Amino acid sequence: MTNPGPLIVQSDKTVLLEVDHPQAEEARRAIAPFAELERSPEHVHTYRLTPLGLWNARAAGHDAEQVVDTLLTYSRYAVPHGLLVDLAETMARYGRLRLDKHPVHGLVLTSTDRAVFEEVIRSKRIAGMLGERLDDAPGSEGTVAVHPSERGNLKQALLKLGWPAEDHAGYVDGEAHPIALVEDGWALRDYQKQAADSFWHGGSGVVVLPCGAGKTIVGAAAMAHARATTLILVTNTVSARQWKHELVKRTTLTEDEIGEYSGARKEIRPVTIATYQVLTTRRKGAYTHLELLDARDWGLVVYDEVHLLPAPIFRMTADLQARRRIGLTATLIREDGREGDVFSLIGPKRFDAPWKDIEAQGWIAPADCVEVRVTLPEGERLAYATADADERYRLASSTFAKTRVAERLVRQHAGEPTLVIGQYLDQLDELGEHLGAPVIKGETTVREREKLFEAFRQGEIDLLVVSKVANFSIDLPEAAVAIQVSGSFGSRQEEAQRLGRLLRPKRDGRTARFYTIVSRDTVDADFAQNRQRFLAEQGYAYRIVDAGDIPD
DNA sequence: AATATTGTAA
DNA sequence: TGTCCTACAATATT
């Protein structure tokens, strides 16, 4: 019972994908809705079947039968029977419980399974959120009232117990406010429309799209569906201004209808854009700006960059379960592992377009990722070996050998707009000096930054050295080449964001280059491996070359 | 009242 | 594993 398929499905819930197999791409696409990529070296990629992944697939309308069918279709060997049983059982756990509106009790939790129901209501964490036990609703095996204010906490707790509830309690419409898209000289792209529509049908949830694919537009389209007052939460003030600018340009909203609620301004308007920061600041331990949440009868809450949502916002979001919520992000991966909270409090993933698909449609540029390996010079090698663990990463990632390689790469791409990105200021200063390029870091004034960005945009200068400011400033100009010399300890989302900088389509349809310079045989290499995982999931393969092979 | 500076938190 | 960057609030300054 073997066929030459590209997958090997194992009973430890890993799924191996043979990358060079002719059906590999097809299989990757088929398993993407429910499997999570774990490692991605050259030949065989490892995916894992996790409960969260399977439940997300359920929420997106896939059933166990489809998942099983996909595995059987592409598997090379017989798929372990136990795994299939387990998979079906895990998927069946989703929706065994459901939340509904109730005319008398406000909100009720019902179950289709007596044992599950009894288990859940006896859980210590959950008991306090429940009201009185009611007569079984027709067709149910247990019904209990729920305090409406506990809707979010309950969902969070049930997910942790492994019995995620399906939320059918619906949403308040909020205060109506007319909002429509003004498609004037531009049009909503197919995938943007699909994303906004699938969000709307689901009621709340997350849309995953690559950087530069127009997430703001999806937000605007969602608002045009809701036609209600909207609270938009963003990571920083620059982003807040950008949202405002885009909304004025793309919708019937005028400047006066859009307020900014941040450190500098405290405007509350029918559409209000607030920073996460301002909501999470506390005085004497108490949150100071919670009034914003109650200031209006919001019909929609938009969470920009949901992968960066700070922990306290989860607590507030738990109280906002009656409002429609849309989360926007380029990656659902959180380095703090709170994906489950995003799932239970904002909602399941409603739409997801692989970067490569958007690339194929020409909305983002193709990119070529290259990992350049350097060897530490003898002296540094010794210093590295004897250094304390906490100094090793810095030593390995800021070796002078990298500066030399960067120089060669820069020369090779002379004339193309190039960014050199790193995390240690000493290293960046050194690079700036050797490459004869300006360095932009935190202490660079806004005026200076703008001057340099503008010169870069105009093509007057073609090389900038940037620190972590690159992670935050949205107005960083697009480039064709990026050279990463060091990065945070293993942040996948940082890597994704940096690559995202290059993906605006080039006028001549050229491929972007993303180099990452790594010291071999050091912790630098380990972290680089972790950082690359997310991009590998999106189908970006790193070519590995030796520094010696870069022509001078 | 608007703006600049400094310290703190995450 | 720990550096760097940002936003906010408070205070000082025009």
From TrEMBL:
The Helicase ATP-binding domain, residue ranges: 196-350
Ranges of residues in domain Helicase C-terminal: 404-552
Keywords: ATP-binding, Helicase, Hydrolase, Isomerase, Nucleotide-binding
Catalytic function, reaction form: Couples ATP hydrolysis with the unwinding of duplex DNA by translocating in the 3'-5' direction; ATP + H2O = ADP + phosphate + H(+)
E.C. designation(s): 5.6.2.4
Entry GO MF terms: 3'-5' DNA helicase activity; ATP binding; DNA binding; hydrolase activity
Protein biosynthesis is among the record's keywords: no
Family according to the record: Belongs to the helicase family. RAD25/XPB subfamily.
Record protein name field: DNA 3'-5' helicase
The organism of origin for this protein: Nocardioides pocheonensis
